[in-house]
Design brief:
Two copies of one chain form a homodimer. With about 160 residues, chain A is mainly alpha-helical. Chain A has helices at about 5-30, 35-50, 55-60, 65-75, 100-120, 125-155; strands at about 80-85, 95. Chain A binds a DNA duplex (30 and 30 nucleotides) through helix 1 and helix 4. Chains A, B: InterPro entries: HTH_MarR-typ, MarR/SlyA-like, WH-like_DNA-bd_sf, WH_DNA-bd_sf.
Chain lengths: ~160, ~160
DNA sequence: TCAATTAGTTGTAAGATACAACTATCGATA
DNA sequence: TATCGATAGTTGTATCTTACAACTAATTGA
């Protein structure tokens, strides 16, 4: 249990700034050759999770299905994603990376890697690892909180 | 210099997720009584930096002045911000927190503090501190990078 | 005094996101 | 098996954050 106010203060403040800065930096230095945050996450997800339906995907990414639907539509238009209808359920169209999507993702990853290497040139390996792990832990904490909250609500409803 | 690919991989991935999750969590659990990220940062800035003009403020916050102008306009409409024209320069209107703005900010801070305390209930004091510091360091790194980049560009131009 | 600069506003646009209304399909049961 | 409730997905609408560009009004330096 944390009671130290100034720690929280710092955390909040820097989180708010971080969200703004991180995005701005990506846009300023990568945008030409990169894709946006959402595209990146979507492509990444498709690469890892093979052919999946929109619902399944939006659920794992914690996105509203309408949001995912639009984003996928735009990726499809660019030729990065292909759909085949699920033989077992005609409502579902299975999504997967196309060749182009795949190589685009590879390229985007490389670029990001280069950019981060440059940006974090003065950081030690250890700091980078720690930061990555703390971000991951935070994300997991939010996820767990969300689930706990939902189940609490459900219990209350009953 | 970092060369470890998987560290970078983790960092990128978790950063992208973090931006989404952090915002979603705030909205989901605080939105009723809270203000958005930008409002929070603006109010906070005004509190710390007393009466300032729009330009000065948008520069320190690294926001386009048009963005800041609109956000301030909306805060003004809510009665959180007051403007007085600068006697030394009629183009400038000096912005400062009103009483309501001030107490709203106090309340928002408290709420956030409560929420974070709940969310990070399982985190140790040390982890919180570390995370806050790493976020801060990252923000500073981006800021420095931006300035270096700009001055490099200027040198090249000459 | 007049041209160039600066502060600020407003028009327009784009990306991320959500909710709600709708269509098409599925599956269980009466 | 015909129907009705649930589910997958799309589309309309809306909000938030942000930026760039065009504009106005005030300032300042030559």
């Amino acid at each position: 249990m944390i009671t130290d106010n100034s720690t929280m203060q710092l955390l909040q403040q820097e989180m708010a700034i971080f969200i703004r800065r991180a995005e701005a930096a990506r846009i300023a230095y990568l945008s030409e050759h990169d894709c946006d945050r959402s595209t990146y996450l979507l492509l990444q997800h498709l690469k890892k999770n093979g052919p999946v339906g929109l619902k399944a995907m939006s659920t794992s990414l914690q996105l509203d299905i309408s949001t995912a639907s639009r984003q996928i539509a735009s990726l499809e238009a660019k030729g990065f994603v292909e759909r085949t209808s699920d033989p077992k359920d005609a409502r579902v169209s299975l999504l997967q990376l196309s060749e182009e999507g795949s190589s685009f993702l590879r390229r985007a990853k490389e670029l990001r890697h280069q950019f981060f290497t440059l940006l974090l040139g003065e950081w030690s390996q250890e700091e980078c690892e720690q930061f990555g792990q703390l971000l991951q832990k935070f994300n997991q904490t939010v996820e767990q909180f969300r689930q706990r909250k939902i189940s609490l609500l459900k219990e209350n409803e009953q």
